[in-house]
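S., here's the first fold you wanted:
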Amino acid sequence: MCYRFERLYLIYSGSIYRYSSKLINVICPVFILIPLPQDDHDRGGKNPFRLSIPKIRPVVDLAIEQVYRLDLVPANSLYVIYRDTKLSDAVGPNVAIEQYKKNQLDCIIGYAFVYALAPIARITRLWGNGVPIITPVGMTNNLDDKGEYRLMTRINTPYKLMCQAVLKVFDHFEWKKHTFVFHTIKDPGVPVSECFLLLSSVKQILKDLFPALHNFFPFDEHKLDREEFIEILKQSSFISNALHSKKSTFNLQPLEFNRFE
């Protein structure tokens, strides 16, 4: 027996997309692609949240059971396809393209590597009526353009909201001097870390408010030893510490490093 839905709505990013007269059942299912790596290795920052197909599959199974239990769609009408992206910015987009070529792609949930996500998130709006993407990555400001990434929904908080929070704190305490201390791997063959991407977004809003300073202290957490980190904290403290503002409820003082010896 076929179920006909005169109005089936998918809501993404505040927009409503209507699929009129779409048959949904076990013969005509909704194809959901989940593109993730087979293992949860970080691979030099490519998988910052350590996502993998074996980790995600039980969660998806429970979610689908709940959808059927609530009778939101007919039983067995959701067809989930897992594809190994190999944390590659070539293989990752290609698995989505292959599913679209087979006419078996209605929704994408996933991607662990932002460089694999970005090209697909730009073009899925051009595929038929559009293919929505739900992803845990891609929080940087350059993916905020809803004209460009119209069908992408990020389940994590975009970095622009973090930037707004930082501005509120700086404004409240009348702070001006600041430093950035963050982990990243200085290797052109390795993607920059999420720490770098987050603080780059914060830097963009602060640079217009305060004079440019040499206030960056990147480090590799896999190689840094105790003495090097203490030196970074010393330099950072000397640059960013100042007399407290009128609104501050505490004084910023140079760090007492002897307590760590």
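And the second, which I think is the more interesting of the pair:
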Amino acid sequence: MEEAHTSAFIFEAQAAMSPPLPGSAVRGSQSGRPLMALFDLLGRRWAMRILWELNHSQPTFRELQILCDGISSSVLNTRLAEMRAAMLIELNDYGYSLTPLGKELMQLIAPLREWSKQWEESLKD
């Protein structure tokens, strides 16, 4: 039993050090399936908020920190590094921006906004 606990701890530590990418075991899945890696990445603290802000502007690190309601610099730095490794964002002369893959992802997520409004309404019934 202690071995299983140690293995889980080692897996969590490795997951924290490397971004979730297709082909690798991620939180909640050992399969390496691309969708599971995406869910892991997007499910990390502040990840969706960062992508949301980058979908509307091209902020510097400090500007993005302010836009994200004062996210800590260490968490922001970690999320940015993970999303850069996943090729969803890039850093250029003007600040951070979505890559073509990141823009495509945000277009695919957009319909969920409307669905979530309908979901909210159905919960009120």
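Why I say that: The first strand starts at residue 89 and ends at 91. Helices lie at 2-17, 34-42, 47-54, 61-67, 73-85, 100-124.

Talk tomorrow,
H.
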